[in-house]
Design brief:
This protein has 10 helices and 8 strands. The chain has 292 residues and is of the alpha/beta class. The protein has one domain (17-291): Rossmann fold, CATH 3.40.50. The chain has an 8-stranded mixed beta sheet, with helices on both faces. Helix 4 packs across helix 5. It is globular. The N and C termini lie far apart (46 Å).
């Protein structure tokens, strides 16, 4: 009876609100500090938000620093907003990390490679922030973890593997990156199957050196690749399993894990308390970052 009484109002709320609105609203159970609208460029979408853990609950490295994570969301490079992913920032900060969630420009305003240039700018700004006096009391780790879901995982993979993008911001990959985490990313991009993604990459004239799987030999920092049990958007075997195998065969540091009970969307959704009954992506990420 109690389950029914609880379930009825939840269903009513769900039917009246957007899924992301509900997820972000519930994420306020996490008691973290937010600092919004931090510019890394002059354009409207060149901004990021910060999420900071309570000082007495921050995670610590062996040196006593707080690990730092910069997250990029997905959306086929044509949709999405950092405001939609406050639940990710709050959840990761509640786990004790200093977290950034960044916007980047989208199609049709831009195509490849402008969103990678934006992402590199966000890394530069986040790196400046974690090295600044402004966050000194959190003792943030200067080397960053980059994390992305779907299209955001592509962005992160390219930043971590292809030195061009961070160099354009005056950064060296090995100086600024500690590791990276990709969730349901397209790492073997071509040929592109999704019609709304094709123009982003100039189909059929795909740009040279724009596919993460081309950069296996440049993979010199540890990577965690997460995939859902059932991905209805991106072929897990082609993009995650094969990519991980090629990294492993080349002697690179890679872990690849499937999260039980999840789909392409709910893989990132497991960072919300709403999906407590799914396998946890957060537990796996914590374990990987603790080990690396």
């Amino acid at each position: 009876m109690l389950k029914k009484l609880v379930w009825i109002p939840i269903v009513s709320v769900v039917s009246a609100c957007s899924p992301l609105g509900i997820v972000n609203g519930i994420s306020r159970v996490h008691d973290v500090e937010e600092r919004r609208d931090i510019a890394y460029g002059t354009l409207e979408r060149q901004q990021l938000d910060l999420y900071l853990p309570p000082l007495d609950e921050r995670r610590k490295t062996e040196a006593g620093n707080t690990p730092t994570i910069l997250f990029f969301y997905g959306g086929s490079w044509n949709s999405g907003s950092r405001a939609d992913y406050r639940f990710v920032g709050r959840r990761l900060a509640s786990e004790g990390y200093v977290v950034g969630v960044a916007d980047y420009r989208l199609y049709p305003e831009v195509r490849y490679p402008e969103f990678l240039q934006d992402s590199a700018g966000a890394v530069r700004k986040f790196s400046e922030l974690v090295r600044s006096d402004e966050l000194a009391q959190w003792q943030p780790e200067e080397k960053l973890t980059l994390m992305g879901h779907s299209a955001g995982a592509y962005n992160v993979a390219m930043l971590a593997l292809d030195a061009r993008w961070l160099k354009s911001e005056g950064l060296e990959r090995l100086d600024v990156l500690k590791n990276w985490v990709g969730l349901a990313g397209p790492y073997d991009l071509y040929p592109i199957a999704l019609e709304d993604v094709k123009p982003v990459f100039f189909f059929p004239d795909y740009p040279e050196s724009s596919n993460p799987i081309e950069f296996i030999e440049q993979s010199d920092i540890p990577v965690l690749l997460l995939a859902p049990e059932d991905d209805d958007l991106i072929d897990t075997h082609r993009h995650t399993i094969t990519f991980a195998k090629k990294l492993r065969d080349a002697g690179k540091s890679v872990e690849q894990i499937d999260i039980k009970g999840t789909s392409h969307t709910t893989l990132i959704g497991t960072m919300s308390p709403l999906l407590f009954f799914k396998g946890s992506s957060v537990d796996v990420i914590n374990e990987f970052l603790d080990q690396n």
